[in-house]
Amino acid sequence: MTNHLVSRFRVKKLSPKQRLPIYKASQLPDLVDEAIKLNRSVPVIETGVEKEEEEEHDLQAAINAAHAAVTTGAKMNSYIPTPDASHTIDMAEYHQMYTTHFDPPQRLIRFNMTDNDLFKSNYVMDEYDMAFLSQLESPVPEDELELVMDHMEHLVNTQMPHLDLDPSQIPTCPELIKMLPESFPTDHPVLESIILHWRERRIQRSGRPIIPQLRYEESTRKGDNDPYVCFRRRDTRSTRKTRRTDQQASERLRKLRREMEKARNLCGMVLRREKLRKEGFIQEHAVFVKRCELREYQASLGIKEEDIFIPAYKKKRHKRESHTSGSTTIKIPLSRLRDDDPSHGKSLLQLAIEKDLARKREEDIGFEDITACPYQPFPLDLPCCFFNSFSPKDDHAPQFRKRIGRGGRIFIDRTRFKIPTSIEPRYRFDPDIDPTKEDVVFEENEDGDCLEYLWNSWQQPGKKVDEEKKQDQKIRPLRIRLLSPKPSASSSTTVQHTNNSVP
Question: 159 near 170, Cβ under 8 Å?
């Protein structure tokens, strides 16, 4: 049991909320001997100084010498220097400082003021001030010198606290005299000399106070092991992380690394793609420039055939693998294959026309274009050709109609525009117009100029504008090719369609 207790010994932080067990001396073995046997380090007693300062050579030597002097009685070779308070002072001086007459207070506890509170100034003269007083022509008491020096120190430390950062900003003697309060006597004959002496002392101290002050730890200086710092804040130790939290943090870092590598690879691939695109654009531009130059040379030399310099694109045929190795293969002559190729033996102009025709076929899927159709409709029956109906013309038809609604309200309806019946046969094949309907009604927002143009075109369908004729002549070959049936490759005969109406 004892060995089990010793092996599990661990220095833990004491807490008032934690219950501590109590053991007798007979229940516990000698901890020092057991620690030596188990090669376990005995916990070091805290020295009360910083952890970084505990490892200093002088401090360790003094602690070891003091421990050896207590345990073995050896002489202390090294020690921590402290002021000696063993000597005594003169009794006359002691009685002058501390009176023997003491009257106990009747009520409450009373105390006297300290010696520092009794002094008028906090400045204390040194040997430099004594040498300065000896050089003055008119004698000045020491108390007055200390009072003036203390006023100057307090005034500058209050109004210019960061003077040590830039000593060149120390004010001059006239400026310092203006900074003194009004209650301070400025008519003293040696006041200016004392101020100049204080200014020289402050310059020698690089802007710092003449009397050294307690140095505190500054928040801006972290990790500064200055031995002259009196008070330092104790930083709380961070809680120890468990293995689970360490694994989670490392897993997050690995995941972040993988994501960053993927993003980097994607950026590299995008950059490579854009470079290839740029090279492709440059090559296409160079080809375009060369073709333009070729066109200019052809125009200047009078060359009309384009196939000599720009051969037609030939699509490569992929060879199909034969599934049966023992079957006989029939070879087709190469000339026959070239003749079957639709792009073989055609110029660029023919290929461009066929491409436009194919595009127009795709756009006109589901529609029937009869505006420029070369075919004539089937002839009507003979009775229908001579049938004609007569209807009385009402030139004085009313343009408005009056009706009465609910509550006695009066409504005026305007008669809509009617299209003449002579324009019906032109649109009889349109699926969205009913041929049995007598008239087609237009909306009220139709423009008058548009209706007039439609009326003129319907009354005189043979007249067209010269620009429309030119445009129609350009598109007419395409329309004829679109409406003509495509000849099959197997048929040896072709049907030629003629139209006398086509110019």
Answer: no
* Bridge partners, residue 86, by sequence: none
d(CA 8, CA 18): 18
pLDDT at position 230 is 76
- The DSSP 8-state label assigned to residue 297 in this structure reads H
Torsion, Cα of 497, 500, 501, 503 (10° steps): 90
β-bridge mates for residue 231, sequence order: 216
Select from 39, 55, 38, 35 the least CA-distant residue to 47: 55
The single residue listed with the structure tokens 């070779």 is 77
The answer to whether the CB of 397 falls within 8 A of the CB of 415 is yes
Please give the biggest Cα pair distance in the chain.
Answer: 164
Token pair, residue 156, equals: 């500058």
CB atoms within 10 A of CB 100: 6
Q: How many Cβ atoms from other residues are within 10 Å of residue 202's Cβ?
A: 20
Q: Is beta strand 400-404 parallel, antiparallel or unpaired with respect to 410-414?
A: antiparallel
Asked if 7 and 38 touch (Cβ cutoff 8 Å), the reply is yes
Spatial distance between the Cα atoms of 295 and 17, rounded to a whole number of angstroms: 100
Averaged confidence pLDDT in the chain: 72
pTM of the model: 0.28
* pLDDT at 343 exceeding the cut of 70: no
Q: Please say whether the beta carbons of 211 and 123 come within 8 A.
A: yes
**Buried b or exposed e, range 249-278, using 16+ CB within 10 angstroms:** eeeeeeeeeeeeeeeeeeeeeeeeeeeeee
Specify the 3-state DSSP secondary structure of 251.
helix
| Mean pLDDT, residues 350-364 taken together | 87
Return the ∠ at Cα 375 (arms to 369 and 381), rounded to 5°.
Answer: 110
| Amino acid at the residue 395 | D
Question: Would you place residue 276 in the very low, low, confident or very high pLDDT band (cuts 50, 70, 90)?
Answer: very high
Q: Summarize pLDDT for 88-113 with one digit per residue, the tens.
A: 888 888 888 887 777 776 777 666 66
Distance CA(433)–CA(23), nearest Å, equals 114
490-501: per-residue pLDDT in tens?
A: 444 444 444 444
CA angle 94–88–98, rounded 5-degree value: 15
Q: How far apart are CA 172 and CA 166, in angstroms?
A: 15
- DSSP annotation of 375: S
Residue-level pLDDT at 53: 76
Q: Report how far residue 15's alpha carbon sits from residue 239's, in angstroms, rounded to the nearest whole number.
A: 16
